[in-house]
Write a structure and sequence with these properties.
This protein is mainly beta. It has a single domain, classed as Jelly Rolls (Sandwich). It is 4% helix and 39% strand. The protein is built from one helix and 13 strands. The protein has one helix at 133-137; strands spanning 17-18, 27-28, 31-37, 46-51, 56-57, 60-61, 66-73, 75-79, 85-87, 92-95, 101-105, 111-117, 126-127. It has a six-stranded antiparallel β-sheet with strand order 1-3-4-12-7-10, with no helix packed on it. Strands 9-8-11 form a three-stranded antiparallel β-sheet, with no helix packed on it. It is globular and about 45 Å long. The protein binds manganese (II) ion.
């Protein structure tokens, strides 16, 4: 399969560090994260996330919700029990509080999005099971 490698390095925001340690256990494939806004006074964490082709996070939810702003490549967003939504640069994903979902790259493309944690005072993300290859492979073929 031809893989679009144009986004193997970030083209807009810094790619940051490869996810390692405990957080790596909630990803399938490699991912990179650069925290862009962490200042307490803004109460609004903003971060750039890059996924390798087929890379994705586990099913999870955010107690205060999350917004994704897609900046590069092609990827997927899926809520539990719903079909996947294909994502391209410029797309905005509004993820309500406590809705179980995952996000990640397409099979043949790197994928980058900005993440914004809304209402962060409501708590950290809750992490669930892996998005299996069986689930992932249903998205596009
Ligand atoms: Mn999320």
């Amino acid at each position: 399969m031809m893989v679009n490698n144009d986004l193997s390095e970030s083209i807009i925001f810094p790619k940051g560090n490869k996810v390692e340690g405990p957080l790596a256990s909630v990803f399938t494939g490699d991912a990179w994260v650069e925290m862009l806004v962490t200042d307490e006074k803004f109460n609004c964490p903003v971060y750039n996330v890059t996924f390798e082709p087929r890379g994705r996070n586990n099913w999870h939810s955010h107690p205060g919700g999350q917004i994704l702003l897609v900046t590069g490549g092609r990827g997927w967003y899926q809520e539990d029990g719903k079909p996947g939504r294909e994502l391209k640069p410029g797309d905005v994903v509004k993820i309500p509080s406590n809705v179980k979902h995952w996000h990640g790259a397409a099979k043949d493309s790197w994928f980058t999005h900005l993440g914004i944690t809304t209402n962060p005072e409501k708590g950290d993300a809750k992490w669930f099971e892996t998005v299996t290859d069986e689930e992932y492979n249903k998205l596009d073929s």
